[in-house]
C-alpha cells in the first residue's frame, strides 16, 4: 500500500504522535505533508493567549521556543540532547520519509503531485487545512484521526473541553474524511481515561499516544478497515477555542493547563 500523511507543525505533541507511526510504517508512507493553519500567526497567538491566559501561555511559549531551538541545532544534536525530536520534519528525516510543506493544499499543482503518487490512503493527523474533494479523490481512502470521541467535541481544543465538562474519558476517533471537518463516518475509537490529576498538557500527551497506536493498527490492517458507523452532526457537538470566561471557570474548578 501507499499512504500520504497530512499534518501540521508544532514541537510539543505532534513529533511524539508521528514517531511511532513512521517507526513502524515508513516503508508505506510516500510523503509527510505539513499543511500549516492558514490563519495569520498573530491571530493564532491571540487565540492561544485567550485560551491559556498570560501565565500558562507564557510557559507554553517558552516550551515551544525551546523545542524550536533544539530542532535548529545541526544534525541530530537537538534530538540527542532532549532524547526526542522536536519537529515533524526531524521525525520524517529520521525515517527517510520525503517531507514537504504545502502552503495551499488546494493548489492544482500540489493536487496533481499527490495524484501522481497514486496513494491508497490519505491519513490526516491535525492537518491545518481542509483537504478538498479533488485532493480526497486522489486516493482510495482518506482517514482523519480526531482527538475526541466523536461525535462529541468536534473542532479545536479537544483536550480542554472534556476536562471543562468533567468527563471521565476522552479518546481518539478514526473517521473517513469528507470536505466538512470531523463529519465523515466513524471507523473506530480509542478511549483514554481522564484522571483527577490530568491537565490539558497531559491529556494532549495521552491523545498523542493513543492516536499513534490507533494509526499503527489501521495501517497494519489496511485495506481491511473497520465497518463504518454514523457520525451524527449536531451544532451542539462543535467546540472552538475557549475564551477568557471559560478559562477562568476552568481554573476556578481546580483544573490546570500545564
Beta-strand residue fraction: 15-25%
**Residues in helices, as a percent range:** 40-55%
- Average pLDDT: 91
The separation of the N and C termini measures: 39 Å
At the fold tier of CATH, the topology name is: Rossmann fold
Number of helices: 9
| Derived structural class | alpha/beta
Please write the CATH class name: Alpha Beta
Could you state the order of secondary-structure elements as H and E? EHEHHHEHEHEEHEEHEH
The gyration radius over C-alpha positions equals 18 Å
CATH homologous group name: Formyl transferase, N-terminal domain
Tell me the strand order in the biggest sheet. Answer: 3-2-1-4-5-7-8
By DSSP, the count of extended strands is: 9
- CATH architecture title: 3-Layer(aba) Sandwich
Number of domains as seen in the coordinates: 1
Main sheet overview: 7 strands, mixed
Structural description of this entry:
- The protein has 258 residues and is α/β, with parallel strands linked by helices.
- It has a single domain (3-252), classed as Formyl transferase, N-terminal domain (Rossmann fold).
- Helix content is 41%, strand content 17%.
- The protein has 9 helices and 9 strands.
- The chain has helices at 14-25, 41-72, 77-82, 88-94, 108-117, 133-136, 160-164, 200-221, 244-252; strands at residues 3-7, 29-34, 99-101, 121-125, 141-146, 154-155, 169-176, 186-193, 238-239.
- The strands form 2 sheets. A 7-stranded mixed beta sheet has the order 3-2-1-4-5-7-8, covered by helices on one side.
- Helix 1 packs parallel to helix 4.
- The radius of gyration is 18 Å and the shape is globular.
- It starts with a strand and ends in a 6-residue tail after the last helix.
- The model has no long low-confidence stretch (mean pLDDT 91).
